[in-house]
Design a protein that fits this description.
- The structure holds two protein chains of two kinds.
- By secondary structure, chain A is mainly alpha-helical.
- Helices cover about 80% and strands about 0% of the residues of chain A.
- Chain A has eight helices and no strands.
- The termini of chain A are far apart.
- In chain B, a hairpin with a 2-residue loop joins strand 4 and strand 5.
- By secondary structure, chain B is α/β, with parallel strands linked by helices.
- Classes of the chains: A mainly alpha, B alpha/beta.
- At the A-B interface, helix 5 and helix 6 of A face helix 3, strand 6, helix 4 and helix 6 of B.
- The complex binds adenosine-5'-diphosphate and magnesium ion (MG).
- The site of adenosine-5'-diphosphate has 10 residues of chain B, from helix 2.
């Protein structure tokens, strides 16, 4: 017996959107911490740190996110750890975000002109102070637009968590579609929810980028 | 300045000593057998064609560049010995760059206060007092709360000089400090450098401002292809250069 796509069905999907938002926020927050560590390791003068971070980035950029999800979810189970899909998705997405943000921010750190490093070094600032007071504040401005842009990618990427059984907005859509068989209506609704989340962020990212371009053209 | 006062001003103490310094970029030798002694209070102008190694030479003094061979002793400290020695050297050596290299996200005052606070551990109040003192000395006390981008090139370079002076260095290095400036701003920066020289600062200046060299330098060094080709007091250097390469260079630069 097919159900109709009514208010209840719509609300079910909409309610699941909070899990999409929450998963995105967790992965983003984790990615900020992990990404900063990866970026700092990547630009470190210590070879071992920069090579380790480089390897981490390569692995996570060079494999599909879905495989990373599978590896964390099923891998943990075979190791005897019983991860629920929630935790598995959060871990995999955090690692993935750390790699991508780390690589984005490495570029931003290295985009700070050479002369800034030299002036700070000539004044006798040590590496930690040099990073903290001179390089990172300038890199932060450069990093803002691509970071917000990455958040958009991350929100959309959370849809893959549906495949390991985590009921975020995409999986909620699948459930409702199985009951109503109104794919256009159902997945149109799901897509509209993603769009409502992502579009304002894309817009912000573009505006930041334009403002940054205008500021650096001065 | 008379020869007598010269003799009494310059002390015998050698504050910078470069011995057989050699440096390569890959297979390209950028510094060849550099030997240089600088006395406390001495003002040295380094000139030479573009690419001759002038910047590399002075950047070896505070180890922004590392020379593979030779020894560099600054204020009795071996620059290459250890990171603690490097710290000590960098505290004593101020540097001014062609492109100013002010910190764009900090006000003029913050630019001047950062290193004294973070490197010397000076208190905030003391760092601010020192910063204001030197900003007054370079004649821009009223720009303290502006950001570098709001200043003219000449003002920015004077801030850069004040920022370096706030660390109370014993030696100041200048790498073409007026080359990036519009012509009308060159004088204000040179005047600042002249007054610094009059206060007895040990200075090494890479510059093509030959008027400055003539009036301020104790010694002029001419470099070409990584070598010190010739050096001498301004009088003899300009009136009676010994080497063909020096004559060619002077011919070119003085005809402008
Ligand atoms: N990082 C570098 N890598 C390779 N070559 C360099 C580097 N820096 C400078 N050089 C070369 O070394 C030579 C001397 O440079 P530099 O000391 O800047 O000369 P100057 O200041 O006299 O113009 C130049 O030929 C320059 O191209
Ligand atoms: Mg140079």
């Amino acid at each position: 017996m097919l159900r109709q796509f009514g208010t209840n069905e719509f609300l079910f999907i909409l309610a699941a959107a909070r899990w999409t938002v929450l998963l995105s926020l967790i992965a983003f927050a984790g990615g900020i911490v992990g990404g900063l560590a990866i970026a700092l390791m990547r630009v470190s003068p210590l070879k071992i740190l920069s090579a380790t971070a480089g390897g981490f980035i390569q692995v996570f950029q060079g494999t599909p996110l879905l495989m990373q999800l599978f590896l964390v979810f099923f891998g943990a189970n075979t190791l005897g750890l019983d991860l629920n899909p929630w935790v598995a998705a959060a871990i995999a997405l955090t690692l993935n975000a750390s790699a991508f943000l780390g690589e984005i921010w490495r570029g931003c750190i290295q985009a700070v002109p050479r002369g800034q490093w030299e002036a700070a070094g000539a004044l006798g600032l040590h590496y930690p102070s040099l990073m903290r007071y001179i390089i990172l504040p300038q890199a932060f401005k450069i990093a803002l637009p691509p970071t917000v842009g990455f958040l958009v990618q991350l929100i959309k990427a959370t849809s893959l968590a549906a495949i390991i059984g985590f009921t975020e907005v995409t999986r909620a859509g699948q459930i409702i579609n199985n009951a109503t068989f109104k794919p256009f209506l159902v997945f149109g609704t799901v897509a509209a929810i993603y769009f409502a989340l992502c579009w304002p962020l894309s817009h912000i990212s573009m505006r930041l980028e334009r403002r940054f371009a205008a500021a650096s053209a001065r | 300045m008379s020869t007598m006062s010269e003799a009494s001003r310059l002390q015998d103490e050698i504050i910078i000593r470069m011995e057989d310094v050699q440096k390569w970029y890959g297979t390209f030798q950028v510094l060849k057998d550099i030997n240089l002694k600088v006395r406390t209070g001495e003002r040295i102008v380094i000139c030479g064609p573009s690419g001759s190694g002038k910047s590399t030479l002075i950047r070896c003094i505070n180890r922004l560049e590392h020379a593979q061979k030779g020894r560099i002793i600054v204020d009795n400290i071996d620059v290459g010995a250890s990171s603690r020695d490097l710290d000590a050297v960098r505290r004593e050596v101020g540097m001014v760059f062609q492109q100013f290299n002010l910190f764009p996200h900090m006000t003029v005052l913050e630019n001047c206060m950062l290193a004294p606070m973070k490197v010397r551990g000076t208190s905030k109040a003391q760092a601010e007092a020192t910063a204001r003192k030197y900003l007054t000395r370079v004649r821009i006390p009223d720009q303290a709360d502006k950001y570098p981008a709001q200043l003219s090139g000449g003002q920015q370079q004077r801030v850069a000089i004040a920022r370096a002076l706030c660390m109370s260095p014993k030696i100041m290095l200048f790498d073409e400090p007026t080359s990036a400036l519009d012509p009308e701003m060159v004088k204000e920066v040179l005047d600042t450098m002249v007054s610094l020289a009059e206060e007895g600062m040990t200075m090494l200046c890479v510059t093509h401002e030959m008027g400055f060299a003539r009036s301020v330098a104790d010694r002029i060094i001419f470099m070409d292809r990584g070598e010190i080709v010739e050096e001498g007091a301004p009088d003899t250097f300009f009136s009676n250069p010994q080497h063909e390469r020096t004559r060619n260079f002077l011919g070119q630069i003085l005809s402008h």
